[in-house]
Amino acid sequence: MTVTVRFAPSPTGHLHIGNLRTALFNWLFARREGGRFVLRFDDTDRERSRREYADMIETDLAWIGISPDLVVRQSERLALYEAAAERLRAAGLLYPCYETPDELDRKRKRLAARNLPPVYGREALRLTEAERAALAAEGRRPHWRFLLPNFGDDPFFPTRTEIHWDDLIRGPQTVDLASLSDPVLVREDGSFLYTLPSIVDDGDLGVTHVIRGDDHVTNTGVQAAIFAALGLTVPRFGHHNLLTALGGEGLSKRSGALSLKSLREEGYEPMAVASLAVLVGHAGAIEAMPDLASLGERLAFDEVSASSSKFDPAELDRLNAEIVHGLDYPAVADRLAAIGVPPEQAPTFWDVVRGNCAKVGDVAQWVPVVFGDEVPTPDLSEEDQAMVRTARDLLPAGEIDAGTWRAWTGAVKEATGRKGKALFMPLRLAITGVDHGPELAGLLPLIGRERLLSRLG
Fold first, then answer.
1. How many C-beta atoms surround the C-beta of residue 21 within 10 A?
2. Cα dist. 351→9, 321, 343 in Å?
3. Is 105 within the bounds of a domain?
4. Kind of pairing, strands 309-310 and 243-244?
């Protein structure tokens, strides 16, 4: 058996880091098992699905390093779902219901007032052909529900019917079908909700493992029953915990919160995003992994927390800085060139400034500091100005190299009696215009004698 998994986003917005968690759990599992990863666009929602969102989803996944083995679109497979729906109708397992949303809402409220669970009572099964014809004459169009196998001889008297499975992540799970309403599979306009197309595709594409968020645990019981009704093999299921924002609110594609597009545009490294998406809520330290293969080695389903995990942007910043500090020049050469770093000095420049960059784009703030003709004039006291003038006179002759800073400050210290911050800070301010930054021993050769003397007055 070839392991086959699927990631099935709806192209109704941008992927966020919570969606990426699901994609990576599937991708890493498939690669570890030598299996296939299917990207399936659940785009049967005609009003909200957009091709541009689907294209961006593929771009986002490619940025992370995920390349699907197969891409399918449900909008191109409608005939398969129609055929499955007809099979269920013919078997008496898909029945028409004529209640409006308002009528269903009132029923739920009446049940709640009686402290009863809001389970649909299958009233539509009691309708005669004449009553259905009368409702249709009123202009009502039916939605279609799947009749759950949770009863003996009489569908109006459900009995406890347990669906069991050994969840890849959560371990043994049980869902009682008697506690659930018959799910709507087809809307009034004939379009399909998520459930039936998903099951048909899983069967048709040979999906062996379904790994998804734990908000689908209850759905699994329903879907197992529909798999059986269609004569399809039930996949192995795994449900991981969800990510929330720090305030506890859920992430949403439509809100754009923590979207991969925005994180990419803000300059985060893909492995920082991937590492946090997988390792938050996972046993062990959250650390920046060098590549997806290493991340896959860390992933252990039995070490994933059962409760939701909060996404902390500060953790992402930490991981990103860790990755950036370890990047060699070839990995950033194109980005430095785009920022305007002189190519002949770019390798040395990157080695000097990367420790002060949380993102590669942060090098932009050091370009004028190093290569600019002028820097902001510091507000120095008269005593500090005098010390800087003395330092200018003591600048060693010859080429400025990695040893210049130490020899120079040693001479200034001897001449002025200054040391520590009183010595170094006025020089840093005069040379760079800022009170922090990379080691001046590394910056001085890049700044060069002419710019250095100009800045010292």
1. 26
2. 41, 14, 13
3. no
4. parallel
Query: Is residue 253 annotated as involved in ligand binding?
Result: yes
Task: Please check whether residue 319 lies inside any domain of the structure.
Answer: no
183 close to 146: Cβ distance less than 8 angstroms:
yes
Total-model pTM: 0.91
Does residue 10 sit in the same domain as residue 65?
yes
215/350 same-domain check: no
Query: Distance (Å, rounded) from C-alpha 445 to C-alpha 430?
Result: 16
Q: What is the dihedral of CA 391, 393, 397, 401, to 10 degrees?
A: 20
Distance (Å, whole) CA 46 – CA 191 = 8
Cα(210)–Cα(400) distance, integer angstroms:
62
Which CATH number does the domain housing residue 449 bear?
1.10.10.350
Distance of CA 26 to the CA centre of its chain: 13
Mean pLDDT per block of 10 residues along the chain (457 residues) reads 95 93 98 97 88 96 98 96 98 96 93 92 96 94 97 96 97 97 96 96 98 95 97 97 80 68 96 97 94 96 91 94 97 96 96 97 96 89 93 92 94 93 94 94 95 91
Judge whether 240 and 213 are in contact, CB under 8 Å.
yes
SS3 193: coil
Number of independent structural domains in the chain: 3
Give CA–CA dist 102/84, Å, rounded: 29
Please tell me whether residues 202 and 71 are part of one structural domain. yes
Tell me the chain's radius of gyration from C-alpha atoms: 32
121-138 burial code (b ≥16 CB/10 A, e <16): ebebeebeeeeeeebeee
User: What is the tally of helices (H) and strands (E) in the chain?
Assistant: 18, 12
Whether 217 is covered by a domain: the verdict is yes
Q: What is the CATH number of the domain that holds 49?
A: 3.40.50.620
Q: Are strands 209-213 and 236-240 parallel, antiparallel or unpaired?
A: parallel
Which of 371, 394, 428 terminates a domain? The answer is: 371
In a domain, 202, yes or no: yes
Last residue of a domain, one of 371, 402, 428: 371
CA 304 to chain centre: 17
Residue span of the structural domain in which 210 resides: 4-79+192-243
